[in-house]
Amino acid sequence: MEEAPIIFIDADEDDQLMFKQALADLSSSHPPVVFSNGETALDYLVSVDQAPFLILSEISMPGMNGLELRQQIDKNPTLKKQLIPFVFLSYPIHDNLVEQAYDLTIQGLFEKKLAYEDWKTQLRDIIAYWTACHHPKKVKSAL
């Protein structure tokens, strides 16, 4: 069975390319699935059977932003039950966004690193955490 994908949502095409390159450089077994906004990501999430391993989302995007996407996931009973780890990877981080984000029961908020090697290390650490974490999603899949 193919590994669950890592969803990356960011309107910046350079960041999308950097994400794909970083996953390749890290030899990740999780295929990248990339979207430019929350609407297309949500359409994808409700249309596939396999829950993603992880969602990494920018907060500020045109159309449905990351905060609105998280709200929509929580409102959808099927998606909510999938217990998909949801992490914001955004730049810049403003204090008011931190409170808003954590009110939405996210699992992390990181400021994107600007240099590629730093960004790749950050991504490696996030993936390693969720790979090692005893998360309810893992327990459900083991049953």
Automatic annotation (TrEMBL):
GO terms for biological process: phosphorelay signal transduction system. Pfam families: Response_reg (PF00072). It comes from the Bacteria. InterPro entries: CheY-like_superfamily, Sig_transdc_resp-reg_receiver, TCS_response_regulator. Residues 5-127 form the Response regulatory domain. This is Response regulator. It comes from Spirosoma agri.
